[in-house]
Amino acid sequence: MLKKCASRIYMVLIFAFLYLPIIVLIALSFNDSRSKVKWGGFTLRWYTGCFQDEKIMTAFVTTLQVTFLSAIISTLIGTLAALGIAAMKKRHQTIYLGATNIPLLNADIVTGISMMLLFVKFIDLGFVTVLLAHITFSIPYVILNVLPKMKQTNRSTYEAALDLGATPLYAFYKVTWPEIRPGVFSGFMMAVTMSLDDFSITYFTKGAGVNTLSTMLYTELRKGIKPELYALSTILFFAVLLILLAGNVYPGKKRVAAK
């Protein structure tokens, strides 16, 4: 009994540690006072204000552009790479998987500095370099999400579709794609999440005049964070939460319908 009670208290403390800062952030986004310790009443003016602040909106739009462009491109490249690795022999798979894991284990600051040194040799730092950097570090996450699904597919079914006259593209779409789709979606969501809040790599690869939310928050921290940023962060949190809920509920409904 005591062990069960202690485990529950432990879980409550863990979840409180994880979500209490987010709850405080949400509460501050509705606080009419700029003070972080004094409640000044309920208000929505920070939500309207964040959309009227040109600097915040510019950083927000840049963040969304980089996030979704890099996620889409890295998902396409990562999925094709996973297909290629799955078709290799075991020895070659081990080599390429080892190479895929290196960027994940490498420190972000090392990756950011190395990319900066590479980019300045050829092009000026700016939006394009940030996008290329985000695509580069997102690809391994996609590969590692798609590859397990590729290993679960039945190669014989794909080959049978080819023997029955289907083209390789049609056979892939009808046979392989339904099997790996959850992995592709997971890889896409992982790429979106990693790109959305990245700071280190973005900071070293961005040029003058290019700011994402993470880099703008870093510069604003010295002067004091605006309450409008609390509101924008709250909107982003609930947007990501809704996407995750939709991604988990919709496949469940499909499985129930199939049964």
What characteristics describe this protein?
mainly alpha; 0% strand; MetI-like fold; globular; 259 residues
Short description:
Pfam families: BPD_transp_1. The protein is 80% helix and 0% strand. It contains 11 helices and no strands.
> In CATH's first tier, which class of the domain at 58-226 applies?
Mainly Alpha
What is the CATH fold-level name of the domain at 58-226?
Answer: MetI-like fold
Number of strands: 0
- Helix content range: over 70%
Question: Major sheet: size, sense and barrel closure?
Answer: none
Query: Averaging pLDDT over every residue, what do you get?
Result: 85
Rg for CA atoms: 22 Å
Q: Class by helix and strand content? A: mainly alpha
CATH superfamily of the domain at 58-226: MetI-like
Quickly count the helices: 11
Query: In what range is the share of β-strand residues?
Result: under 5%
* CATH architecture term of the domain at 58-226: Orthogonal Bundle
Weakly predicted, low-confidence segments: none
Task: Give the SSE order as H and E letters.
Answer: HHHHHHHHHHH
Distance from first to last alpha carbon: 40 Å
Tell me, briefly, the overall form: globular
Keywords: Cell membrane, Membrane, Transmembrane, Transmembrane helix, Transport
Membrane topology: Multi-pass membrane protein
Family: Belongs to the binding-protein-dependent transport system permease family. CysTW subfamily.
Organism: Roseburia faecis
